[in-house]
Design goal:
214 residues; alpha/beta; TIM Barrel
Length: 214
């Protein structure tokens, strides 16, 4: 009998968009990003100043035509109305309030979880995933070390998928090794328009087999 340990399962990528004002101005960028690697889901963040329904309807087919889940941040009712795949919800209260609009057919993801208790409460409420590492309302992210620790804790105890936010390909790899099921790429992807595709492709390559990459 072989004593080689099984390789850990590879994580999958998600994309978190910047705050979108005019969807038409972002459509080509999003299409290119979705084609740059194997993406499981896109979390679309619509600016309060945008026309949310028009923006969502513009972007949704660009994502879904590639068999990528299209999730709206904090807009459960709109997600259900336009045929999105679900919503990413900030905090346990919004999750609780949004579940009747999304379940059983749509994804209800939980973010904005400030503590382990919040994450466990989201699980009890039947969230489809929990997210660790996203910036707060002021744009401040938790320390990367804290995110890795939170991911490792969750992966060891819970079965509900864990999404971890990464800013670089190296961070994506470390979070995948810690046990994250999904790696969400945020601001780092969109910072340099000329490098969007290469940043995504590099992260996808790094997490494809985390146990085999030095």
């Amino acid at each position: 009998m072989s004593e080689n340990k099984a390789e850990p399962p590879s994580a999958r990528l998600m994309l978190m968009t910047p705050s979108i004002g005019r969807a038409a101005d972002f459509a080509d960028v999003l299409s290119a990003a979705c084609a740059a690697g194997e993406i499981a889901a896109v979390i679309a963040r619509l600016s309060p100043a945008s026309e949310p329904e028009l923006s969502a309807r513009t972007l949704l087919p660009l994502v879904q035509q590639r068999n990528i889940a299209f999730l709206l941040e904090d807009r459960a009712a709109l997600a259900a109305k336009i045929g999105a795949d679900g919503a990413h919800l900030s905090g346990t209260q919004m999750l609780r309030e949004s579940l009747p609009m999304l379940k059983p057919g749509l994804i209800a993801g939980a973010g904005g979880l400030a503590s382990r208790h919040d994450a466990m409460l989201a699980a009890e409420l039947d969230a489809d995933y929990v997210m660790f590492g996203e910036p707060d309302a002021a744009g401040k992210s938790p320390s990367f070390t804290a995110v890795v620790e939170r991911v490792a804790w969750w992966a060891e105890i819970f079965e509900i998928p864990c999404v971890a936010v990464a800013e670089t390909a190296d961070q994506a790899l470390e979070l995948a090794r810690a046990g994250a099921d999904f790696i969400a790429l945020g601001a780092a992807v969109w910072r340099d328009p000329q490098r969007i595709e290469s940043v995504i492709a590099e992260a996808a390559a790094r997490i494809s087999a985390p146990g085999q990459i030095a």
